[in-house]
Amino acid sequence: MQPELLSSSAILAVIRKAVTRREDAALVYEKASRTDLAEKERKEVELLQAFIPPLLGEADIDRLLQEVISEQKLTVGDKKALDSKLVKSRADALFPSSS
């Protein structure tokens, strides 16, 4: 029996959780005047963050959503008419390894 492979999004979630834990640990060590251990945790955060792709900025997200809305020729009152399948397909195109 082969082990089940994790999806890219699951792997990213694990890495993000590890980053959060190390950031929290660094704060605890700082409060306890253990700067040596805090620095070690921060270095691990830097290492882990190298494996996390940068997030889209708010302006980029707005621009992409505006493209989808324009393609569907929607007006302000048509928010419910937004094709969620199209939005998902665009997200999949932007993030091909997220499945």
From TrEMBL:
GO terms for cellular component: mitochondrion. GO terms for molecular function: carbon-nitrogen ligase activity, with glutamine as amido-N-donor. It is found in: Mitochondrion. It comes from Hermanssonia centrifuga. Its main location: mitochondrion. SUPFAM superfamilies: GatB/YqeY motif. The gene is AIM41. Belongs to the AIM41 family. This is Altered inheritance of mitochondria protein 41. Keywords: Mitochondrion. Coiled coil: none annotated.
